[in-house]
Amino acid sequence: MTTAAPTATGEAPGPAAPKPSGWAPLRPMVLRLHFYAGILVAPFLLVAAVTGFLYAASFQAEKIVYAHELTVPVGDGKLPIGAQVAAARKAHPEGTLSAVRPSPSKDAPTRVLLSGVPGVGKDHTLAVFVDPYTGKVRGALEQYGSTGALPLRTWIDEFHRDLHLGENGRLYSELAASWLWVITGGGLVLWFARRRSRRRLRGTSGRRRTLRLHGTVGVWAAAGFFFLSATGLTWSTYAGATIAELRTSLHQATPSVSASTGGEHAGHGSAAAGGGAHGVGLDKVLAAARAKGLSDPVEIVPPAGASSTYVVKQIQRSWPEKQDSVAVDPATGEVTDVLRFADYPVLAKLTRWGIDLHTGVLFGIVSQLALMALSLCLVLLIVWGYRMWWQRGRAGAFGRPVPRGAWQQVPPQILVPGMAAVAVLGYFVPLLGIPLAAFIAVDVVLGEIDHRRGRRTYGGRTA
User: Fold this and answer.
1) What is the Cα–Cα distance from 147 to 170, expressed in whole angstroms?
2) Residue of 402, 460, 410 whose CA lies nearest to 22
3) Partners of 101 in beta bridges
4) Do the Cβ atoms of 310 and 303 come closer than 8 Å?
5) How many CA atoms lie within 13 A of 29 on its CB side?
6) Cα–Cα dist 422/433, whole Å
7) Cα four-point dihedral sign 337, 339, 340, 346
8) What's phi and psi for 138, nearest 5 deg?
9) Cα separation of 396 and 311, whole Å?
10) Residue 311 forms beta bridges with which residues?
11) Can you tell me the distance from the alpha carbon of 321 to that of 295, in angstroms, rounded to the nearest whole number?
């Protein structure tokens, strides 16, 4: 057996010191970023999680609260669409006809949508619910969005999206979506860097147990958090606009059927609010759309003007999605343009599926339950995160922060490209880049102040 040569002191040398890994200088920086991002952004995430939970539950609650308007007794035969619209207009002559959603099933009413109704919010419509068998009006409710959200779901949706503060309030949700994936990614890196033997929950207590609960749930829910963050950014104020511009430059924008009398697919919207039935009438328009394969549920939009067509579009967002649309000439009843969802660009399809899954409509009750579970996981992670902060302290005080200056330990060959990547990412996602730049600036300034006072911190020890 070979033995090591004795040293000059006559003692055998000990084992060689392990070579430090590339992760060693990065861990303190990732830990500090995860810690402070979690502490500062967690209140926004908590609001988003709670309101998101309520929104996912609102689909089923809506069916209960508005059961009278949303269901009708099944009769023998449905009246013509034109007669149903006439009944709705007789009961509600105010406003203008903006769209009609014919009864999609045997026990569902027809929705006649009116815009410009006094007392109805901007970008909202008044939905008049008509019994398709008798023509009786069962009620009228304010409606919002392409999914036909009624007052309860609309209120929760707006609370989740902007806290009922308008466009400025949307910044809260964009901030939460911008940072959710960063916090999740940092947590994953920290968790998997730990040795597997240290992940056992059994036999642990105190802060160590809270940490392991926090990490275990975070790992299992991470994929869902990444998805919610990415899809949430697609229709945010700033990042969403950048994404839309990028899709347009790549010719991946969502197309729409041409609403002019003849022509190719246009990049503008289909049709605005019209005054009522035009030309051949709603029933022949619907028949023409049926002949092109547009099955229920559909929405009929009247012509916006003298040179516009009817637009009939499928509005099913659950799987399988139905998003085909056609334009119908009001004078002849002939289809002038057809747009199939199968012909959408790839990114347009992915955006549509991502948004519909994020909002809980793509797979119905299944996706709604999954969203509620993700929301609950996020609430628990935030609570455990603040508890760890408390447990990190002493004598009931909140915990000590992770020592600053960690970025100074990162090798330049890693730090410089990393900062460049963060700068580019911050440009496209400003509510990530601006707070991150502010955090780094404050961190550097406070570190310099400590240095000038002779109390600069190294690895948690004061010099």
Assistant:
1) 20
2) 410
3) 111
4) yes
5) 19
6) 7
7) positive
8) -95, -10
9) 65
10) 301, 327
11) 11
Mean residue pLDDT of the chain comes to: 85
Is the C-alpha dihedral spanning 266, 126, 323, 132 positive or negative? negative
Tokens of 263: 């022509």
User: Distance between terminal CA atoms of the chain?
Assistant: 47
pLDDT of residue 276: 53
3-state secondary structure (DSSP) of residue 84: helix
pTM of the predicted model as reported, rounded to 2 decimal places? 0.84
Amino acid at 311: V
- 186: closest CA among 320, 311, 31? 31
Does pLDDT of 459 surpass 80? no
Q: What is the pLDDT of residues 274-323, one digit of tens each?
A: 445 567 899 999 999 999 999 999 999 999 888 999 999 999 999 999 99
How far is residue 252's CA from residue 166's CA, in Å, rounded to a whole number? 29
Is residue 91 within 8 A of residue 128, CB to CB? The reply is: yes
CB 309 within 8 Å of CB 329: yes
pLDDT tops 80 at residue 409 = no
Is 92 buried (19+), middle (13-18) or exposed (0-12) by CB count in 10 A? Answer: middle
Amino acid at 415: L
Q: Give the integer Cα–Cα distance in Å for 412 and 134.
A: 76
Lowest mean pLDDT among 135-139, 200-204, 383-387, 433-437: 200-204
Task: Report cis status (omega within 30 of 0) of the bond before 320.
Answer: yes
H-assigned helices in 130-276: 151-162, 170-193, 206-233, 238-249
Q: Give the DSSP per-residue string, 294-357.
A: -PSSEEEE--SSTTB-EEEEE-B-SSSPB--EEEE-TTT--EEEEE-GGGS-HHHHHHHHHHHH
Q: What is the distance between the alpha carbons of residues 138 and 127, in angstroms, rounded to a whole number?
A: 11
The closest of 96, 370, 116 to 221, measured between CA atoms, is 370
Between 356 and 37, name the one with better pLDDT.
Answer: 356
Contact between 68 and 139 (Cβ < 8 Å): yes
CB 134 within 8 A of CB 75: yes
**How many other C-beta atoms lie within 10 A of the C-beta of residue 345?**
15
- Neighbour tally for 270: CB within 10 Å: 22
Rounded Cα distance, 275 and 156, in Å: 31
Average of pLDDT values for 175-190? 93
C-alpha closest to that of 27 among 260, 228, 255, 191: 191
